[in-house]
Amino acid sequence: MHAPDHAVKQPFGLAVSRLRWRRLLETGFGWHLRVVLGSWMGATGLAILLFFAVVGIVGPWIMPHDPWEMLEPLQAPSWRYPLGTSDLGYDLLSCLIEGTRSTLLIGLVSGFVSIVIGGNIGLLAGYYGGRVDQILMRLTDVAYGMPFLPFVIVLISLFGRSKYFLILAIVALVWRTSARVIRAQTLSLSQRQFIRAARARGCSDMRIIYRHIVPNIMPLLLLYTAFNIAWAIGTEASASFLGFGDPSTITWGTMLYDLWVSGDTRIAWWWFVSPSVCIVSLVTALVFISRAYEEHANPRLRGR
Questions:
Q1: 51, 228, 271, 295: which has the fewest C-beta neighbours closer than 10 Å?
Q2: Which residues contact 123 (CB under 8 A, 6 or more apart)?
Q3: Helices and strands: H and E segment counts in the chain
Q4: Could you report the per-residue pLDDT of 29-60, keeping only the tens digit for each?
């Protein structure tokens, strides 16, 4: 007697399923996960980042109070107010949760947009060279000539205190470092044999850039993405602390600004601690993740 068809096909289907899962782990999301989790710093940074992401997503359901509701002013941490209250009676735990969402939004949008701009400028300058390279690199030099925080302050002063103009100001300068580094890497890759072979086969320039070069510099792109997000979060906190943040939005930087304006820095120590710890923790987490990608992009760091 012959075995039923499904009995013969089941092992083959199981093997195909396992092969698909193995390919998923070797490429795409699985590859990034292996790179980050392969380093204790990357794993720690990812855990901290996921914690803040979860807090930002479920924030509206876990806030003990409305962050704009005036309660008892200047209350030290207690069971009723775990992180205390501000001089106007705002619950700092609720403000911190709301600030997590705003800070992550500004940091992620600014970081990703800046790496898209800087990455494309670096790719085009390194691949085409000549006049294209000179024009794009002179534009990068102009961006380098502008002091970072004063430029952000001037731009916000001209167009208004809005989180969207703050994102625009951050993006306008953060892209410059990644553009130069990616240009240098693209210059090296454009002379490799596989790029010459692609040209000989008649591949278009855009196909060569985004199909053959980009996958080879992906660890570098992700490294500077993490750096750019960290820079954006630090810049937002600095600008908000100086009074150039969006007054209609609660961020960790605006919480520190409100503390400074109130003049209660020596009395309300709890008001300073919570947003400061969050800023340091999130920026450190992103630096840890970038370190994991840096070790992958630079094998000499793995031996250390």
A1: 51
A2: 182, 183, 186, 209, 213, 214
A3: 12, 0
A4: 676 677 788 888 889 999 999 999 999 999 88
Q: Which two tokens stand for residue 251?
A: 């961020």
Q: How far apart are CA 214 and CA 53, in angstroms?
A: 28
Copy the structure tokens of residue 125. Answer: 């300058």
Tokens of 240: 């908000």
Please classify residue 144 by burial: count the beta carbons closer than 10 Å to its beta carbon, then call 0-12 exposed, 13-18 middle and 19+ buried: middle
What is the pLDDT at residue 10?
44
Question: Considering the entire predicted model, what is its pTM?
Answer: 0.80
* CA atoms 228, 83, 266, 153: torsion sign: positive
3-state secondary structure of 74: coil
CA distance between the termini of the chain: 63
CA 274, chain centre distance (Å) = 21
Q: What span, in angstroms and rounded, lies between the C-alpha atoms of 125 and 99?
A: 38
91 strand-pairing partners? 85
- CB under 8 Å, gap of 24 or more: what pairs does 76-80 form? 76/270, 77/270
Cα 227 to Cα 223, 233, 234, 284, distances in angstroms: 6, 10, 11, 10
With CA atoms as reference, report the closest residue to 268 among 258, 259, 256.
Answer: 259
Measure Cα distances from 102 to 14, 98, 132, 228, 246 in Å. 45, 7, 38, 17, 10
SS3 state of residue 268: coil
> CATH classification of 48-58+81-301 is 1.10.3720.10, yes or no?
yes
Residue written as token pair 């908000």: 240
| Calpha distance 299→304 (Å, rounded) | 10
